[in-house]
Amino acid sequence: YHLHFSRVYGRTLCLDMETADNVSKSGETFYNAENSSCFYGEDEYNCGLSSELQATAKTDLFEDEKVRQRSLADLRTWIKEHPNIKRCCISSNFLLRFLRLKKFDLDETKKVLVKFLKMKTENPEWFKDLDVLDPKLSALFDLGYIFPLPERDEDGRTVIFVRTAQINPDNNVPMEVVRAMYTTFETLLLDEENQVSGFSYVFDMKDTGLYHLSGWTAQDARMVINCSEKSLPMRHRQIFLMNLSFTLWTILEFIKSLLTEKIRSRLHLLSDQKKLVGRIPTNILPKEYGGKVPISDIMSQWKQKMVSMRDLVLGHDDLEYREPETKKYSWSVSGCLRSLHIW
Prior knowledge:
Layout: E1 3-8, E2 11-16, H1 17-26, E3 39-40, H2 51-61, H3 65-81, E4 85-89, H4 92-101, H5 106-122, H6 124-127, H7 135-142, E5 146-148, E6 158-163, H8 174-188, H9 192-197, E7 199-204, H10 218-230, E8 236-242, H11 246-257, H12 261-264, E9 267-270, H13 295-308, H14 310-314, E10 320-321, H15 333-339
Parallel strand pairs: 3-4, 6-7, 7-8, 8-9
Antiparallel strand pairs: 1-2, 4-10, 5-6
Helix pairs in contact: 3-4, 4-5, 7-8
């Protein structure tokens, strides 16, 4: 068993050689903290996509080698010259997730990147410190609150499974729940195949009631939903919500009002798990839902993967975007009159 030690974004990283090789293929770059700067991780892109996936990227995202190289160069230049971007990762893997989301439309890519940086900077208690080893987050993962299925669906997408009843509001505040979710998301985004193919979601809300939502405010829900849809560089392809109680159906109407029409059109409400048949292949589902592998085994393997990628995810805690400070002027009637030589 060989270990690979390096530095990534200023943190010590310990990976087995197979994982280290996968990280290298993902495009993320190791660097020496002593030589770090405000813009870190710049690298030469080495395509890790299969020929089939490259063809998909060209058809669906207008991506080819020439477009990719030009877009990465232009985006890096823009980031370095932007007065409000104080610290940003400029690795190929990181920037391509935004370019692919917006199909290499550079202007739209810039808008989403700024939103992402502002999201991280302005709401650190929600979107930073995405640490799988944090005791609160680790406990949520052990319960099987959120995990990706080990195999992809028929469209090559990773399926993210969420079981909301595993949340205990007495032990987990909303910020911890969201951080567990975003730890999963950012780990998955390190895989280029996910950036191209996108994601499907299954939310099982069986046995979920108002008790599980007791810590949430309407303002918090609005902020998290807005960030998840408009700031996170993920291609949300299909969202299945099943086993909703009447109470949750009512709340869902409020949530839908916060979503764009594009995402609303991708929501599918299912009365029970039997309705998943034909939508998600049964053989890739957890054993508890008709598949082969128990949730405990899926979660154990996924948690190991998150631990191996932990430092790459935590490296994005360093991102920073600052709006220019506006000068505050004080004035009085007498002062204005004196300046006009009236008083």
